[in-house]
Amino acid sequence: MGFRNVSNKFKIALPLFIGLFISQNALSQDFLNLILPEFKIEQGTMEESLKKLRAYGIQVCFEKVLRTNLEEREITFSLQLKNVSVKAVLDALIAADPRYYWERYHKLVMGLATTNLINVLPVRGKEAPDNLMNIRIKKFEVKEKEPIKIIHEIGELAPELAKRFREIYPGGKAGEEPGKVFGGPADLKIREYQINLRLDDVTVREILNEVALISGGLCWVFEGTKGRSPLYQWKAF
């Protein structure tokens, strides 16, 4: 992975949206061991469940299993947990929808660095040769651009991704309406925060994870529908 360069165009105080359940003593411990007072979902999807985790301040990004058509229904499930760790919630979600697994994002900066960013991914998604998120980008660079727009416009900003998308899915669509946040904290002032970012020899997934890490709390979702007229989109979460 290459280097990154980040700058603020606006001096703003990014809001801290970590839930009130976290005490000062808890801030020093691994966030996966933090205890949530309650986690409840009734006939909800994986995305809806992860939104609830986001409300507790957990930074989790989501790569959805591709649908075969627009009418395909998503899997739903119910959970009711109390006084449970973040890790236990993630494990319970994966058990409820075993099409997915979760992992902690690690980045290479003079060695393997651990982050507090979680990815929920399709099982074997990283090995799928036709997965757009696995495409390697030789050089990715943006200047003075808002993180939310980078996420929404990644299909155009990453050269190899844009090229590959047109080759594999002629007539397909990529992207999502800019400036919209789906399921994230309503008061997060991401749109006023602009960054410079350069990364070398990284996957699309790694680019999005790096953007999430320096965004002040934003996450991403990738979803799509396969078929003769495929539709793919990246959205802020």
Explain this structure.
With 237 residues, this protein is α/β, with parallel strands linked by helices. The strands form three sheets. A five-stranded mixed beta sheet has the order 4-5-2-8-9. It has a two-stranded antiparallel ribbon with strand order 1-3. Helix content is 22%, strand content 31%. The chain has one domain.
Question: Would you summarize the structure shown here?
Answer:
By secondary structure, the protein is of the alpha/beta class. Helix content is 22%, strand content 31%. The protein contains 6 helices and 9 strands.
Helices and strands in order, then pairings?
Elements: E1 35-44, H1 46-55, E2 60-63, E3 77-85, H2 86-96, E4 100-108, E5 112-122, E6 136-145, H3 147-152, H4 154-157, H5 159-168, E7 195-203, H6 204-213, E8 220-225, E9 231-236
Parallel strand pairs: 2-5, 2-8
Antiparallel strand pairs: 1-3, 4-5, 6-7, 8-9
List keywords for this structure.
237 residues; alpha/beta; five-stranded mixed β-sheet; two-stranded antiparallel ribbon; 6 helices; 9 strands; 22% helix; globular; disordered N terminus
Evaluate the radius of gyration: 18 Å
Distance between the termini: 24 Å
Annotation, overall tally of beta strands:
9
Unreliable spans: 2-28, 176-191
Mean pLDDT: 81
For the record, the count of structural domains works out to 1
What structural class is derived from the secondary structure elements?
Answer: alpha/beta
What coarse outline follows from CA principal-axis ratios?
globular
> What string, H for helix and E for strand, traces the elements in order?
EHEEHEEEHHHEHEE
Oligomer: single chain
Helical residues, percent: 10-25%
| Spatial strand order of the main sheet | 4-5-2-8-9
- Major sheet characteristics: 5 strands, mixed
Q: Count of DSSP helices?
A: 6
